Structure formats: structure tokens, C-alpha cells
Amino acid sequence: MSDRNPPPNFRQLFIILGIFLIIIILIIQLISFLVDWGITYIPVSWEQKLGSIVVPIYEEKAEDSPQQKALNQLLDRLELQIDDESLAKRDYRVIYIPENTVNAFALPGDVIGVFQGLVEKVNSENELMMILGHELGHFSHRDHLRGLGKALILQIAIATFAGDNSFLSNSIGTLTETISNTHYSRSQEYQADEYGLRLLNKTYGHVAGATDFFKHLDQKKALNWDFFSTHPASKKRIRKLNQLIQQEQYKIGSYSELETILKQNIK
Fold first, then answer.
1. If DSSP codes are grouped into helix, strand and coil, which group holds residue 112?
2. Dihedral, CA atoms, 57, 58, 61, 67, nearest 10 degrees?
């Protein structure tokens, strides 16, 4: 008797696998579209409630220090130059984490996390202000929420498909890990760079230091700084900034020195 259900050949398996991959890609693209659409309608107050859950976890690593106060004073100067209507609902602040990690990141709830390791690498106040302005750019475009939303929804879908019930039970830990590993697209980075550049020019009347940190990153790739994981550096980004500087005819003025306290480590 012949087998009425012979095993599929390799060609059939490849076709099935291809269809399955196409379905997954379409689902991911749909999720991305829905998140991008939905983020624009999320009230700032909702984001701040999310921040009230997440931020305390990072605050445990931070210290109420002179360095943190100095960073917030710099951030306040940048905020004065923001003409975004949503600013009235925001309350931006910096938390300073005394660790050697070279990174800065935007957290839901108007908080910018800055590591001691990053501050130690900058050579001027202008350079540091460009970094803070860049992070404010991610807030303005809500990039931090877009990345977080897409990553979480995708993880939930995978966990549901795999029957992993531990995902939701460990939701807070998963949330913080997702935030730490959130990646930005090149277009999001370019937009945040441009936003930071404009704030830098409004603050000082020139853009000295605009590309300095990115040049450092490009030169120090071998060091594997954590900043690369969330803020991919490239010569193209530096070139785009220089093109914008020429296009807008921004001046290159004198550098302002970092406050002495920011050059000191927390004991």
C-alpha cells in the first residue's frame, strides 16, 4: 500500500518557511506602524505615570550629589530655549549615576540618565550640552516611547507564542531591561542630533562642541563604550551635522569650561 501522505520535500519546506517568515515580517511592520501611530496620542501624563514605575529603579543607583545638581542647572538652561508647546507639561531632570559606564539615555517621565563615565569623557560644557540637547530631542520626537513600545509588544507576542507565562510576572524587570537595550534608528538619531544642535546654538549663540563627542566615539570604537548600543556613532552623522551648520550658517565660537565639580568623582 502506498503512503498517501508522503513527507514534504525540501522545496515544500522552504516554501512553508518562506511564507512563515513573510507573515512574521508583516506582523512586525504592522506593530511598528501601530506603535508609531499610537505614540502620538499618548498623553504626557500617561508617560509620566509609566516613569513613576521605572525611574525609581534607576534612582536607586543615583546619588543626590553636587554633580547631579550641576547637570540639572545645565539642563535648565537648555529648557529655556525650547519652544515646544508640550514643554508646559514636562518636568525634565537629570539623574547622575556614579558608574564608569559611558552612556546617557532618556527615561519615560522626563528623566535623562547620565553616567559618570560619560561626563569624564567630555572636554567642555558645550560638548556636554550637545549630549543633553540630543536626549531632549528624543523626548520631543518621543523616540524613547516608540522604541520601548515596539520592543515590549514584540516580546509579548513572542512570549505568548512560546507559552512563556513568566514574561508578565517579571514585567518590571523586563521593562527596565528593555529600556536599557532600546535602539534608535538612524533617522531618529539624525533628528535628535539636529534638535540638540539647534538648542546648542540658541543657548550659546554658536555651536562649538557640536560634533566633539561623536568624534570621540568614532575614535574610541575599540573601547566598546555602552553609548554605542543605544546611540550608534558614525562619520555620516558628523558629516550631516557639519552640513547643517553650514546650511544654517551657525557660528563656531569659544568653548566654555566644565564646572570643576563635574570633573570630580563621587567618593
1. strand
2. -150
**CA distances from residue 90 to 46, 110, 208, 262 in whole angstroms, order as listed:** 12, 6, 28, 25
Contact 135, 128 (CB under 8 A): no
* Cell triple for 91: 518636568
- Type of residue numbered 25: I
pLDDT surpasses 50 at 222: no
Q: What is the pLDDT of residue 199?
A: 95
DSSP three-state, residue 59 = helix
pLDDT of 171 > 60? The answer is no
- Give bridge partners of residue 106 from the DSSP assignment: 112
DSSP letters spanning 161-210 = HHT-THHHHTHHHHHHHHHHT----HHHHHHHHHHHHHHHHHHHSS-TTT
Judged by DSSP in three states, 41 sits in coil
